[in-house]
Amino acid sequence: MDYPNDLDPGAPVRGGVPEHGRIPKYYAVKAQLTALLNDLAEGETLPTERDLAVRYAVSRDTVRQALRELLLEGRLRRQGRGTVAAGPKLAQPLSLASYTEGVRRQGRRPGRTLIGLDRFPCPPALAAETGLERGEPVWHMERVLLADDERVGLESTYVAVARMPHLDTEFDPDSSFYSYVHERLGIDFGSADERIETVLATPREALLIGTPPALPMLLIHRVSYDPAGRATERVRTLYRGDRFSFTTRLGADSQ
User: Fold this and answer.
1) Is the pLDDT confidence value at 120 over 80?
2) Chain segment 49-87, per-residue pLDDT in tens
3) Is the C-alpha dihedral spanning 8, 11, 12, 17 positive or negative?
4) Which fold has domain 13-85?
5) Is 168 a residue whose pLDDT tops 80?
6) Average pLDDT, integer, range 174-189
7) What superfamily in CATH does domain 90-247 come from?
8) What distance in Å separates the CA atoms of residue 136 and residue 148, rounded to the nearest whole number?
9) What is the pTM of this model?
10) Which of 142, 235, 248, 252 is most buried (most C-beta within 10 Å)?
11) Which tops the pLDDT comparison, 247 or 222?
């Protein structure tokens, strides 16, 4: 089967055109807008919906649907009352590397905003997942993730107070948690169990991240372990689907 006209192996086959050759009007407009975006630099403003409707001889509703898909795909972003070309998605590695390292490797500036740091007894579900004792004190830290001051995710971290008793006074919440654990506490990360799913943000999460509730999110659940197999952290991270993709390298199955 042939690749699309642009020879991009990652693009839909035949540019997404069905075998019968008939495509919806919005998709034709989307293809034209994609070609337009290829000539725009990041941050450049698109023409208005009215102007685009006139240019492509379609209704504003058709233009709006095409723009909505490009927004969800991360090719566009809202800025003030206009729509501008977005930069490439952040490609975060699926590894034990921290969020900080992944963002910096792409020339972006990582940051975080602390929402809350609370201490409470370990609930049964968390105990079952991590091997902690029911009722033992645990920290819950919630932070908004930033890339060049743009809100791109929401992270919730759960750790045992016994392993990190001074988290509330020693740790700078705008810094890398992995660096704190490794460099300050001398704890190494040996392995992790990770699960990824697609979800919609709750109204509260959408408000904290600054996105519409209908925007698809990538949700990562992770339990990290030290080399001895003891759980070090349990993390729930919500990433904007329009700003993130994830990469990994697979090897041959040894079994």
Assistant:
1) yes
2) 999 999 999 999 999 988 888 887 778 877 777 888 887
3) negative
4) Arc Repressor Mutant, subunit A (1.10.10)
5) yes
6) 91
7) Chorismate lyase-like (3.40.1410.10)
8) 37
9) 0.73
10) 235
11) 222
Q: Alpha carbon of 117 to those of 18, 88, 190: distances in Å? A: 51, 32, 25
Three-class SS of the chain: CCCCCCCCCCCCHHHHCCCCCCCCHHHHHHHHHHHHHCCCCCCCECCCHHHHHHHHCCCHHHHHHHHHHHHHCCCEEEECCEEEECCCCEEEECCCCCHHHHHHCCCCCEEEEEEEEEEEECCHHHHHHHCCCCCCEEEEEEEEEEECCEEEEEEEEEEECCCCCCHHHHCCCCCCHHHHHHHHCCCCCCEEEEEEEEEECCHHHHHHHCCCCCCEEEEEEEEEECCCCCEEEEEEEEEECCCEEEECCCCCCCC
Average pLDDT over all residues of the chain: 85
The string over 216-231, giving b where at least 16 C-beta atoms fall within 10 Å of a residue's C-beta and e elsewhere, is ebbbbebbbbbeeeeb
